[in-house]
Amino acid sequence: MRKSVTQDDLLKAFATIARYLADSIREAANENAAGDTSPAYYDARSSPTGPTTFRRAAAAGAFPSFRVGRKLMARKADVDAWIATQARTPKPKKQSGDDADAAFFASLQPRRSSR
């Protein structure tokens, strides 16, 4: 025979479920407050390189990437490591002062033809 469910039984069941959900949410909030709350992945918009550079680098295989729907995603640590390897080399210094003037005036002098 089937036991009939009373309203009190339903309320007790819902209260148990509500306590479980509240504990789970509280636990997740405490974990986020203690740790890093930033996302672990970049997409083209959130990447520090900008969308075009992010897509080109991912297509060239500079770092592992994957698609979630239409979004191209990559692990934040992989992108940051790739950025760190992309150091710019300094441009050569321009000539200054007398050296630059001498080079300029030498270029104005007519060339002698060799006969």
Description:
The protein is mainly α. It is built from 4 helices and 3 strands; from the N terminus they run H-E-H-E-E-H-H. Strands 1-3-2 form a 3-stranded antiparallel beta sheet. A hairpin with a 2-residue loop joins strand 2 (65-68) and strand 3. The longest helix is centred in the N-terminal third of the chain and has 28 residues, at 7-34. 8% of the residues are buried. The model has no long low-confidence stretch (mean pLDDT 81).
* Helical residues, percent: 40-55%
> What overall form do the CA principal axes indicate?
rod-shaped
Number of strands: 3
Main beta sheet strand tally, sense and closure: 3 strands, antiparallel
Q: What is the count of helical runs?
A: 4
Could you report the average pLDDT, rounded to the nearest whole number?
81
Q: How many domains make up the 3D coordinates?
A: 2
Strand share of the residues?
A: 5-15%
Low-pLDDT residue intervals, each spanning 5 or more residues: none
How far apart are the first and last residues' alpha carbons, in Å?
124 Å
Strand order of the largest sheet: 1-3-2
The radius of gyration computed from the alpha-carbon positions, rounded to a whole number of angstroms, is 33 Å
N to C succession of SSEs: HEHEEHH
| Secondary-structure-derived class | mainly alpha
